[in-house]
Specification:
The protein is α+β, with helices and mostly antiparallel strands. It has helices at about 5-20, 175-195; strands at about 25-30, 30-40, 45-55, 65-75, 80-85, 90-95, 100, 100-105, 110-115, 130-140, 150-155, 165-170, 170-175. Helix 1 (about 5-20) packs antiparallel against helix 2.
Amino acid sequence: MRYLPQVGLAALALAATLAATPAQADLVVNGITYTLTESSVGLFTDQFVLSISGINGALDTEGGRSGVNAIAFTKPATFSSATMITPPSGYNFVDGGLNAGGCDGKGNFYCFDNAAIPPIPTTAYAADSTLSFTFNVTISSGDFAGYSPDFKIDWVGAKNNYNLVSQILDPTPAPEPASLALLGTAMIASALVRRRKN
């Protein structure tokens, strides 16, 4: 019974942390899960992380994937630029969308094109592999409120033609460090209460 205050404080901190951590808005297509998270890195710049999981796993209905030829997103209002920060390999910015052949330079999209494809990689990703693309998008004015981009991805691999994903992928805010700080503060308070009682 003497540790009840510490348990209560820890539970309160955990509940507050969970409330501050947004739910992920995942998109699942052909057994592959796509998650887009967003965080602000400047007045007119947001950073996006596209996380892809389940590649060549048991739920992947196409399999044999060995590379991503291109990814594209619709532009936010007042779009200025987009820059890939940490791709799996060298990707180039192309103004416009994509089709089955990769970035096509058409439409209200920005695209990142894998300069190494073709030739198509010959080694398939291991089962349940993951990929992560991090890129910054800058607008000339306003903000990213309500930005729900159309997302496209062009896969390559053992199949002649992979389904060209073309769906809305809602971004979710990245968890903020403040949530972690709140949990740490509650743990310290719990330790102080325990020490005081002893």
